[in-house]
Specification:
By secondary structure, the protein is of the alpha+beta class. Helix content is about 35%, strand content about 25%.
Length: about 260
């Protein structure tokens, strides 16, 4: 394909994407037992493309709420807000969300909640969707296999450099003769945490989330600490931004028109 023709087709595609209207409704329900928390969840509407909106809604509800929105009959939250019969702790509470459109063809839903399983812990995660198809854009689906290998290598080097720099700082602090003795034990435990983390991750940075910012893709790296060691993980959260001009070459060709060209 001639370069000028590719640019023309890319511009036409971007114009069509930008004309898509996105509406966001809110589904709400009150927990039928104490503390009677109000739960809400986004319902995406695309008047010109209802099938695409349905695909996005279905993916969100299945992945977050564990229900099929087509058969839930209004009971979206039954599987996450617990019950009084078995005194089940809510699987999700304090559920908050926001919806934005970082680019004309991309929809992002940010979800924050407290998740409970063996223990309860807050989290924030991002769901990104291609507004042309409703397909979720995650690490594996956005980039080619070769791209993922390259990104893993790049992010791993950045992550190890960050950890090694922090470890060197901890070692320097431990060498300080005036350090508070009570703080020494914390630093030793922190040092062990990060050294073990480096030893466990020998070539993979463990990308657990991503989001699209104005200057590039932000990649979130899985933390080093387990739940009981959270206080030791001073670096959490760890993320790196890589520019679209560089990331674009590693994206799947059909997805590149969604993002800024270099």
């Amino acid at each position: 394909m001639r370069p000028w023709l590719f640019v023309a087709l890319w511009a036409i595609a971007c114009q069509a994407i930008g004309q898509v209207t996105v509406l966001v409704d809110t589904a709400r329900a009150v927990q039928p037992w104490p503390p009677y928390e109000t739960y809400s969840f986004p319902r995406i509407r695309l008047p010109q493309h209802p099938a695409v909106a349905a695909r996005i809604d279905h993916d969100l509800c299945i992945d977050v709420l564990e229900v099929d929105p087509d058969t839930a009959n209004g009971h979206l939250f039954d599987r996450v807000w617990g019950d009084t019969v078995g005194w089940t702790t809510p699987r999700l509470s304090y559920l908050e969300w926001s919806v934005r459109r970082p680019f004309p063809g991309v929809l992002e839903v940010e979800l924050s909640a407290e998740g409970c399983g063996a223990y309860c812990e807050g989290f924030t995660t991002h769901y990104q969707y291609d507004l042309r198809t409703g397909r979720r854009l995650d690490y594996d689906s956005l980039f080619t296999p070769q791209g993922i290998a390259t990104l893993n290598d790049t992010l791993y080097k950045a992550w190890t450099a960050l950890l090694n720099g922090h470890i060197a700082g901890v070692v320097d602090s431990l060498a300080d003769s005036e350090i508070d003795p009570e703080y020494v034990e914390f630093l030793r435990a922190e040092l062990e945490l990060y050294r073990n983390c480096l030893g466990e991750r020998t070539d993979d940075p463990y990308v657990e989330d991503l989001m699209f910012e104005a200057e590039g893709v932000r990649f979130f790296i899985s933390r080093c600490a387990g739940h009981v060691d959270l206080a030791l993980d001073e670096l959490d959260p760890v993320s790196f931004v890589l520019p679209y001009g560089w990331c674009g070459r590693w994206m799947r060709p059909d997805l590149r028109p969604l993002f800024p060209r270099p």
